[in-house]
Amino acid sequence: MTVKKDAVVEMHYTLKNDAGEVLDSSVGKDPMPFMHGRGHIIAGLEKAVEGMKVGESCDVSLAPEDAYGFHDKEAIQEIPMEALKGIDKLEVGMNLQSQDQHGNPVTVRVLKITKKAITVDANHQLAGETLHFNVSIESVREATADELKHGHVHSASCSH
Ligand code: ZN
User: Fold this and answer.
1) What is the DSSP letter of 20?
2) How far is the CA of 110 from the centre of ligand 1 (A)?
3) Ligand 1 midpoint to CA 50 (Å)
4) Distance of alpha carbon 6 from its chain centroid, rounded?
5) How far is the CA of 153 from the centre of ligand 1 (A)?
6) Ligand 1 centre and the CA of 150: distance in Å?
7) 152 Cα: distance to centroid of ligand 1 (angstroms)
8) Which of 47, 83, 130, 160 is deepest in the core (most CB within 10 A)?
C-alpha cells in the first residue's frame, strides 16, 4: 500500500539546513512512526510523502513558509526578573514555559540573562530556515481500529 490518509508509516529522515549541516536524523535509530494526514509531521513533508511506497526515498526542500515560519522580531521579549520567581536556575539556551498575549502556553528559549531581566525568543528554533529533508519509507500499514480512535500510532512500548 502507499502512504495515504490514516496509514501508519515508519520513516527514516535526515534533516539538513541550507549550509548542509545535519540538524536531526533518525538514521542509526528506529524509524519515526506517524499516522499520515493527522498533522503529526510538518505539512509540507506530509504532502511530499503522500503516495510513496515502502523502499522509496525522496528529497524534500521546504521554504520557511512551508516549515516553521519566518523569524518574528516581535516574538523576542524581555521578562523582568521579578516575574521569574520560582525558577531556580536560569541558563542561556534553556527552554521555559511562558504565555503569549492571549494566555496560550508557549515555549520560549532564553537568549540573554542580565541582573534585571532575561530576553526570550518564542520563535521555533528552525524559524527562518529552509529545511532539506531526505526521507525513506520503511513500512506502511493500515491503522488499527484503536489507533484510528485515538488518532495516534500504538507501538510495542505503548502503555495502553
Ligand atoms: Zn492510544
Assistant:
1) -
2) 34
3) 23
4) 19
5) 7
6) 5
7) 6
8) 130
H-helix or E-strand spanning residue 45: helix 43-49
Residue at 147: amino acid letter: E
Alpha helices in 63-120 (DSSP H): none
What is the value of pTM for the model shown? 0.77
**Of 5, 11, 19, residue with least CA distance to 129:** 19
Reading the block at residue 133, the C-alpha cell is 529533508
**Which domains can be identified in the chain, with CATH numbers?**
7-68+126-150 (3.10.50.40), 73-121 (2.40.10.330)
Helix (H, G, I), strand (E, B) or coil at 29: coil
Write out the three cell numbers for 109: 528559549
Distance of CA 15 to the CA centre of its chain: 11
Tell me the one-letter amino acid at 23.
L
pLDDT in tens, the chain (160 residues): 999 999 999 999 999 999 999 999 999 999 999 999 999 999 899 999 999 999 999 999 999 998 989 999 999 999 999 888 777 789 999 999 887 778 888 889 999 999 999 999 999 889 999 999 999 999 999 999 999 999 999 987 676 7
How much distance in Å is there from the Cα of 39 to the middle of ligand 1?
16
